[in-house]
Amino acid sequence: MRGVFGLAVATLAGLIGQSFADPTIARPGGVDDIIITEDNILNSTSVREFTTNTILKTNAALAGAFPISVVNNFDSGMYMYLTGKDSSGVPVLLGANGQFVYPQADGTGVPQEIVANVALPLNAKGQTTQVVLPQALTSARIWLARGQLKFYTVRDGNGISAIVEPSAANPNDPSAGIQWGFIEFNYDGTTIYANISFVDFVGISLGMGLTLASGAQQIVQGLQGGAVDNICSGMKQQTSADGQIWDQLCVTSSSGQALRVLSPNLYVSGNPGQFGSYYDDYINQVWNQYAGQDLVIDTQGAAGKVECRTSNNQLTCAGDNRAYPKPTVVDIWGCNSGPFAIIDSDNEVHRGVVPRLCAAFTRSTLLLSGGNVQPSLGASSYYAVSPTSHYSRVVHQYEVNGLGYAFPYDDVNPDGENASGTVAGADPTLLKVTVGGWS
């Protein structure tokens, strides 16, 4: 996880937790409305954590320049930004002159807007824009925005100028009224790992393709053009169906334009108690069922298949170093708290069970026929019954080729299936990004 630099002019829960209309309305503010959390600060100690919950371990950075092309299928007025850490671990942005920009905070503790020329305009709709990274860039993001975003700087705990990025979760962030999305990547000079993820939110339709020196190509087409509007509509339909607050996951402008859709995990982080009892009955049914029969977790690794049973409000698995208490809805949405938190002393059994157990709860497959073995059911069985993550269900409906994580362990699937929106390889020659639909 990234280290948290604890500067906040107001609390995230206090802002997002206000009583918003249906849906949530973005009301952009100023510097006093910035809220700094681990999700929107890039500092000298922070590391982007990709949705596989594993981090690319980069080698000593080499001086390999790397081209990135962006095909604009969206609209006029589109901009690109690149943020990350240079080979010394210092936060930077890519400037319009092709060199890294090093923000300089004044040490007052008040975020200062970065005024350097870091907004890279995209060419017109249907055209391609190319930039070249001058050297390695890690913990990085390629931002695509319909308008100009605002980035700020403030000194971190090491006295180094950090980058404060736009926050999707804060409806009063200075950039809240802009529609944006990003692709995460690490490039160490010889190897790249890039990822499209919807674990936190859906912002703008992005796709990517990687070409390696060998000629091999990898493609993640991402979301269909116009997917944000469709996903917002899907959230509203689900609210009509079950009375839950799915519609409030959609963030719109004051005029009603859909800007982004928050994941339930990101939404409840600022709205404690929301969705509070949503999974309770399902959890109790799971506990009752597996008190009398084995739940088999296929760790898909050296630990093999592990037999588990429930008793005294805990799930105990053979060979595991500790048991699993009943999860809450927050545990299920985030997959990193309560029974799904992994600590350093956990053994391989535990590390294999956690992702597969949380995925089964998120997709609601534990009570289906064949659900006593996890994972064993294919994607057609995911999200088939309620309660479930209807956010994940709807997001996957609008993925062109079904790739792109909608929750942290979306890579958990029976052998041969893979939902990760990643491209990776050594000796890359081009990363192609499309915005507004794949082409």
From TrEMBL:
PROSITE patterns in the cross-refs: GH64
Segment forming the signal sequence: 1-21
Domain of life: Eukaryota
Keyword Chloroplast annotated: no
A Pfam cross-reference name: Glyco_hydro_64
Domain GH64: from-to ranges: 63-423
InterPro entries, alphabetized: Glyco_hydro_64, Glyco_hydro_64_fam, Glyco_hydro_64_N_2, Osmotin/thaumatin-like_sf
Coiled-coil annotated residue ranges, if any: none
Keywords assigned: Signal
Protein name, entry field: GH64 domain-containing protein
Organism: Xylaria hypoxylon
